[in-house]
Amino acid sequence: MATTPITTSVFDLFKVGPGPSSSHTIGPMKAAFDFRQRIASLPADSQTQSDSIHVLLYGSLSATGKGHGTDRAVVAGLLGWQPETTDPTALLSLLRDPSVSYPISVGTQPIEVGPQHIHFERKRYDSPYANTMVLQLRAGEQVLQQEEYYSVGGGFIIRKGEPEVPADELSVPYPYSTMGELKAQLDKHNISLDELMLTNESALTGRSRAEINQRIDQILDFMHKAVRRGLRQKGTLPGSIKLTRKAPILFQQAKGMSHSSDSFLIFLNAYCLAASEENAAGGIVVTAPTSGASGVIPGLTFLAKHHFHYDKATLRSGMLAAAAIGFLVKHNASISGAEMGCMGEIGTASAMGAAFLTRCAQTNGPIGAIEAAAEIAIEHHLGMTCDPIGGYVQIPCIERNAMGAVKAYNAFLLATSGAASFQKISLDAVVKVMKATGRDMSTKYKETSEAGLALSATEC
């Protein structure tokens, strides 16, 4: 387990941006934007010499980048677009015509970038992370500036050689790196999970409590807008699979079964599919913790708001509990499908969803119930592969979000049945197993579309 304290902001975990993949869309867009900023500050003579920009994609970025829209995201970042403010329709239009190139400002001269400048490399690349991209500013064959970036899941990126922030510059009042340490802090200071999370968030971001609460409300609003859009949209999703949207059909079915015991699950399935289908279409979603898993938490929070009628304060508390679980998995294993398979994405989202439900239902409940719910959810996603057909975040990804939400709900029920204290496996233990499982899993099952369901593409 890692020993350095967790210093991730809630709003780095829950990020707004275009689908379909945080690792393949949001991360590369941020990396390309960073590269744009760096070449803009080069000496004038280097800028004048330059005549091309090349992008080399490795690992899963190469294997499934076409289906995930990585090439479009890179061009968008080079153009200066940012994930939260990107127009998804404009993003989908990029590179649609292979003969069109895009002028990227480098000093006083534009450099044209087109599909021929983005290279999906199949050879192995010596890199510490599965998703690696190298951006180069060239003069002929001479490389004037090169940066290497790693997209590590959830839209988080690391630049090679970037100095680590000194610990005293990123410190929190209540440091923890494991669930054991988190529980120890709560006991030692006799504070609630909400208090710990809010105090640490304020220290990291400088936001006041009111500003943090307002931003959580905004994040929930982005999530629920995605659900509502998905419930209205009909037709087929982009890509060669020609997958038909199901959310509107399920929603209408659920409304017609209001007196049936099954309607509750059908509503939940509809909400999760709605947000996931919006993600697959390249719409604006919230990483929770990734775009590929951006249907689980939105579906559960939409249900909690409109069916359980929880107020804003309760929903915020649930979101903070969900963030705490997401932090622990990201810090001690990974939320990246390219590293963990789908247990890193849907497994984590399900655990976060279980924590959310438990916290909402037990406002002043014990942290042990939240831990038990999260542990149960992860335990039953161990070994889940990431094998998207055609490289699209559609099959099995969309339905898998609904299944993850249902498992989250069941984990919540099991954890709050009065037997949470009987749980034999801790969250820290199952996250450790999760990391080992991801390490042992064949790369064919980690977002490369080289095995599993991905081989069914010819039947679709």
Automatic annotation (TrEMBL):
UniProt keywords (A-Z) are: 4Fe-4S, Gluconeogenesis, Iron, Iron-sulfur, Lyase, Metal-binding
Q: What is this protein called?
A: L-serine dehydratase
Q: Name one GO molecular function term.
A: L-serine ammonia-lyase activity
**Domain of life assignment:** Bacteria
Catalytic activity, per the record?
Answer: L-serine = pyruvate + NH4(+)
Domain Serine dehydratase beta chain, first and last residues per copy: 9-161
Cross-referenced InterPro entries: ASB_dom_sf, Fe-S_L-Ser, Fe-S_L-Ser_mono, Ser_deHydtase-like_asu, Ser_deHydtase_bsu
Please name the source species.
Spirosoma liriopis
Q: Which cofactor does it need?
A: [4Fe-4S] cluster
Q: Which Gene3D superfamilies match?
A: D-3-phosphoglycerate dehydrogenase, domain 3
The family line of this record is:
Belongs to the iron-sulfur dependent L-serine dehydratase family.
* Pathway(s) this gene product operates in, as recorded in its UniProt entry: Carbohydrate biosynthesis; gluconeogenesis
Q: Where is the Serine dehydratase-like alpha subunit domain?
A: 188-454
The enzyme's E.C. designation = 4.3.1.17
